[in-house]
Design brief:
Elements (H helix, E strand, L loop, with lengths): L14 H24 L4 H10 L6 H8 L3 H13 L3 E5 L7 E5 L1 H22 L4 H15 L6
Antiparallel strand pairs: 1-2
Helix pairs in contact: 1-5, 3-4
């Protein structure tokens, strides 16, 4: 039976796009899991460090972003503190809240992890020319931007 093609504006899901997106996610997750394991980090710890790379969120905001309970987040951050990767301090904006941030050791590790991820994914992204990479970046950002859910 031939596949029918619906107009883009119909809101129909293109199975090939979904399949390609899932395959890309699996490849990316495998890279992240491998790099995390090589550095004795869980995927969640890797995510936390990635988030802290360029910001200093409150504990509550970090927990919300990751979809974790406050107690789980507290334990996760405590373990990272024991390793000297992160620190906590009262928020400058609200003394009752606690901010989380990378230590110098944590920042060095994050930069090394970032380079490892870049190197591991480069064989895939290098298959695209500069214009294709820009288009992919634009499309992914649009897909991942907060907005109206259908």
């Amino acid at each position: 039976m031939p596949k029918t093609t619906l107009p883009e504006s119909s809101g129909a899901h293109d199975e090939d796009v979904i399949d390609a997106l899932v395959q890309a996610a699996f490849v990316t997750m495998a890279v992240l899991n491998r790099i995390g394991a090589e550095n004795d980090l869980s995927l969640t710890q890797l995510r936390v460090l990635g988030i802290l790379r360029d910001r200093r969120p409150r504990m509550a905001a970090l927990a919300d972003h990751l979809g974790l309970e406050k107690s789980t987040m507290t334990g996760l951050i405590a373990r990272a503190e024991q390793r000297g990767l992160v620190a906590r301090a009262p928020s400058a904006e609200d003394g009752r809240a606690v901010d989380v941030f990378l230590t110098r050791t944590g920042a060095r590790l994050v930069e090394r992890l970032y380079r490892q991820v870049q190197d591991a994914l480069a064989p895939l992204t290098d298959r695209l020319n500069a214009a294709e990479q820009q288009r992919l970046r634009t499309l992914l950002r649009r897909m991942l931007a907060p907005g109206d859910e259908h």
